Amino acid sequence: MSQPTLIKVLDARIFGKSLLSAFLRINDWILRLLPSRTLNWGPGYAYGKFLHTIARLRPTREVYFGTFFLRNRPQLELLLRLIQGGEKSRSLNIAILGCSIGAETYSIAWTIHSRRPDIKMAMTAVDISSKAIEFARKGAYPLQGSDFTDEQIFARLTAQEMKDLFHREGDSLVVQDEIRAGIAWEAGDAADPALADRLGPQDIVFANNFLCHLYPSHAEKCLHSIVATVKPGGYLFVSGVDLDIRTRVAKELGLEPVTDLIEEIHAGDNSLRKDWPLRYWGLEPFDRRRADWKERYSSVFRVPAPQ
C-alpha cells in the first residue's frame, strides 16, 4: 500500500472514531517498549519519519502556553556569541514574536543583562493573545500554577538562577524590576505583513515554538512576514517550526544558516526532541548525512544585505 493511500485510509472514521488517532496510539505503545535509539538511524529512522508525516495530518492544531524559563540554553549562548564581538555600550533592537506568557522574553533579557550589562536593549514582545500579553507584562508566576502555566515553568532553572531572576511576592515569583524594565508588550499577529513597519528594523528577532502550531500554508506565509522584520545583517532565531517549511523559506530568501552550536541547539529543548515522531511539533534527530543539513537543522539565520 502506498503512503498516500495508507494516509487516506487512516484518516477515515469508524463509529465516529478516528483510525488516525488509533494508529498513533498503537505506535506510541510500541515505541515505549523499544530503546530510544531505535529511531535514530536506518529503518527505524525511516519509519519514524513516516510516523511524523502521519502525526502532522491530525486536523487539530492548538496554541500551547506551557513553556520554561531558559528553555534552550545553547540558543541563548549563541545569542551571546553573536553580540559579543560588537562594540561596547551599543544598542540593540530585539523583538520576540509569539512571546506567549513571557518566559522566553525574560530569559533573553536576563541573559543579556547578566552577561552584557553594557548593551542597551530596546525589546518588544508580541503575541496574538492579549490575555497572554497582560499575564506576561505583570511578570508574576504563581508557584502552584495558573490557567496559563504550572510549576514546571521553573524546572530548568538552578537555585541561583531562581534567585537572580525573581523575588517572592506571596505565592508568586515576580521577575526582578531591572529585568522587566524597558520591555514593550504588544498584542499583534506575527503573520501581519504590516508588522515590520510597525516594529521598525530589528537587529535580532526570535520566533520560537509557535509556527509548528499553525497549518503549513499559514506557517510558511507567516515566516515570510517574520523575516521582513529583521534588518539586513540581523539575525532570526526560529525553532519549533516544521523543518521542511523552514528549509524552503531559508533557501527562497537566501537566509544564511549559522552553524555555530547547531547540534547543541537542535538538541537543546528536550521537550521537542522527545515528542518526535508521534506529535506534530516533534523534532527529528540531527542527520549530517543530508546535503541540506545546515539549512534544515539551523535554528538561527543571518538575513543578508540586498545585492
Structure description:
The protein has helices at 3-10, 19-33, 42-55, 73-84, 103-115, 130-138, 159-165, 177-180, 195-199, 216-227, 243-253, 262-266, 270-273, 293-297; strands spanning 13-14, 17-18, 91-97, 120-127, 140-142, 166-169, 172-175, 183-187, 202-206, 230-237, 256-257, 300-302. The chain has a seven-stranded mixed beta sheet with strand order 8-4-3-9-10-12-11, covered by helices on one side. The chain folds into two domains: 3-55; 73-269 and 288-302, Vaccinia Virus protein VP39 (Rossmann fold, 3-Layer(aba) Sandwich), CATH 3.40.50. β1 and β2 (17-18) form a beta hairpin. It is globular. It is α/β, with parallel strands linked by helices and 307 residues long.
In short:
By secondary structure, the chain is an alpha/beta fold.
CATH class of the largest domain: Alpha Beta
Give the low-confidence spans. Answer: none
Q: Which class of secondary structure composition applies to the elements?
A: alpha/beta
Q: What's the number of extended β-strand segments?
A: 12
CATH homologous superfamily of the largest domain?
A: Vaccinia Virus protein VP39
Largest sheet, if any?
A: 7 strands, mixed
CATH topology of the largest domain, what is it called?
Answer: Rossmann fold
Give me the CATH architecture of the largest domain, please. 3-Layer(aba) Sandwich
State the distance separating the first and last CA atoms: 49 Å
